[in-house]
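>> received
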Amino acid sequence: MKENPLKAYKETQIKTATPGKLVIMLYDEAIKCINLAIDRLKKNTKKLDEVNNNIIKAQDVVSELMASLDFDKGGEIAKNLFSIYTFINKQLLHANIKKEAEPMEQVVKMLIDLRAAWVEVAGKTDTVSDSKRYGGVDLSG
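>> returned
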């Protein structure tokens, strides 16, 4: 049986990604799933199973983000992120039960902001690790 080229490409992306890039990929997936759920809901289709499935996928991603937090190294930031992720999952649960788009729209805005922060952090960490890998100067302190 032939392997799906898109699936193989995604697996390679995941296997070769830095930890920061993996977090960004998780945010991308959660945002995509929530946007699909919002889209299905706003089109007034009878595809509530698709809305439900996409919300659950987004909740699974957020749960994965929660599980990946390192409270020893992350300290207060990790605690704050845990609280935010808990709030996001509660909002998604509410949206799924009530089949309302508004809580999901709020969550997407939060995830986009968090993703932007991770992009900035990952860019700095990748630059630092690249400079170490290639013998450059580490200016991170």
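>> The two ends are 52 Å apart (CA to CA).
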